[in-house]
Structures are given as structure tokens and as C-alpha cells.
Amino acid sequence: MRRSQVLFSMAIVVVGALGFAEASQHQASKQTTIGVINPNDVILKPAPINPAWVLEGNPQTMGAEIAHSDDGSTKAYVWQTTKSVFDWHYDFDEVVTILDGEVFLTDKTNMERRLGPGDVAFFPQGTVVHWRVPDHVKKVATIKTLLPEPIAGIVRWMRMARNMIKPSAAFASNND
Q: What is the mean pLDDT of each run of 10 residues along the chain (176 residues)?
């Protein structure tokens, strides 16, 4: 490896370490609070499904954002819809918990699955899922917008470096 490549690689490591240290200091200085929200108390607003996705019915959909991460990559919503059939195209990872009603879901396996109150499902980015709502369904959805791969790789590398330097507090001994 040429000297210039070595110096460049070292500079990248130093910049990454400085960025990691700065991010760690920022995280340590932030005041964190726990948000507690009753989904039944959330005021919902119209949140129509893409009309091209609706296969049957005239779904009356409502939703509201109830929380989000500092960087905006993760958001939580309360969402509901009336009787309808539609295909949902996931542009992000989503985890849902059904609060009320029921839905029958079919993905590329063509196996129908019922979700009712208390059921949780994960939908990876890029999937298309057929939703059949016989009457109504209300859910809490947490979505995670994925980072572009070059940035995601850097984040994974920085997390790995952080964990090598200072293990997670969850695994720290009581002597710390």
C-alpha cells in the first residue's frame, strides 16, 4: 500500500473516531425522557391510502404521528381504516401492533394470516402485502427508514468500534 493510501486510511479512522466521540458526548449530554401515549387519546387526521393500491371498497383511513427519533429515521403512528382490500407497498421496515378490529394479510407466499388485537407483525422494506379488512382495523405502527448502504456500513463500523472500546452498559459489571 502506498504511503498516501495509508495516510488517507489513517485520516478516515481519526475522523471516524472524532465523530464517534462527538456523537457519544452529544448522547451523554441529551436529556432523555420516556414518552407515554394512550393510542385511544390521539386525534387522528385523514391519511388516505394511495388510490392505485385500493382494490375494493372506499377505505376511510385516519392516522397521526405519535413519536419520532431525534434523527427522524424512526417514527411511530396510530393508524386506522374501514372495510377495504388493498395492497400495501412497504418503502421502509414496519412493525405493527393491532389495537382493535382485524385484518387478513397475504404476502408473496399466498398464505393468509389473521391479525387481531394484541398481534404484532413485521414488514420488511420492499415487500408488498395484500390487506383484507372485513370491518375495521386500528394499529400502532413503528417505521424505520433505512439508511443508504454506504452510510449504513459506516454506522455498523462505528457501532462495532464503540462496542470494542466501551461495552454496552447493559453488560457492564456492577464495579463500573
A: 48 45 47 77 95 97 92 91 97 96 96 97 96 98 84 78 68 49
**Residue 12 parent element (H or E):** helix 3-29
Q: What's the CA gap between 47 and 61, in Å, rounded? A: 5
Q: What is the value of pTM for the model shown?
A: 0.68
β-partners of residue 140 are: 78, 97
What the block records as the C-alpha cell of 68 is 419520532
Residues linked to residue 62 through DSSP beta bridges, in sequence order: 46, 80
At 113, give phi and psi (nearest 5°). -125, 135
The DSSP string of 140-169 is EEEEEPPPPHHHHHHHHHHHHHHHHHS--G
C-alpha cell at 101: 378490529
Q: Which of 88, 93, 94 is nearest to 147 (CA)?
A: 93
| Crossing angle of the two packed helices 3-29 and 149-165, in degrees rounded to 10 | 70
